[in-house]
Amino acid sequence: MRPPAHPSVHSARAQRSGLSRSSRREAAAPPELDHRVANSLQLAVDFLLFEQARLTEPAARKALIEAAERLVAVGHLHRFLSAHDGERDVDLKPFLEGLAALIGQSTGLTCSAEVESMRVTASMAQQLGLAVNELATNAAKHAYPMGEPGELLILAHRHRERLTLTVADRGAGLAKGFDPTAGEGLGLEILRRIVRQLRGRLQAETDGGARFTLTVPVAAATTPVRSFAPPA
Question: Which CATH superfamily is domain 89-232 in?
Answer without folding.
Answer: Histidine kinase-like ATPase, C-terminal domain (3.30.565.10)
